[in-house]
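User: I'm putting together notes for a lab meeting next week and I want to include a structural view of one of the chains we've been expressing. I don't have a solved structure, so I'd like a prediction I can at least talk through. The sequence is below, exactly as it appears in our construct file.
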Amino acid sequence: MQFWFLYALFIMLLIFITLYKMRVPLIGIFLLTLIVFCLKFYLPTDSHVNSLVQSTCANMVFFGIGFLGRDVLLNRLSKLSTEALIKFSLASFISLSVLVVLGLQLNYFGRLVTASLGIIGTISLSTVLERLKLASEIQRYGLLSLHIFLAHIIMAAAARIILMKVFKIDNSLIHLGLWTNFTSKFVPES
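Assistant: Thanks for the context. Below is the predicted structure for the 190-residue chain, given as structure tokens.
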């Protein structure tokens, strides 16, 4: 199943938007994510649909941490000075890097810690950028590049599916080489 994580992410997003619109308290949303995570251990894994549901259950806890972090952390971090936030975000990203270099993100607890550090660091850095009046410029670049990114992803997925299903080529280097060659010749420069 191609790009299963996009489907799982979409399902999680729909669940969280629904809960948010229903005004479910944050602690209730977080507890629900833990319950959904526990369902993962009781689901069969014999089909693509069950695999998608299991992926959604396994990763929903990360979505819950991010959701909780957005409201709880943002309120607490906004009270810190800009200098403290810079130090805090650097410490988060350095700790995150050390975890990854040591390979500690490979088990589930390590993934939780890694995700939490990433969320903390990103929220801290976003607050700093907002205070320094740099966020609007970065947001503008992000919005301008979003359609280019999406076009590349969609075309890369289509090319990969054609190579795998029609030509029976299942080699990542060939996919990457052909796709890079294609984009350099046919995608207009900005």
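A couple of points you could mention at the meeting. Residues 78-132 form one domain. The chain has three domains: 1-68, 78-132, 145-186.

User: Perfect, that's what I needed.
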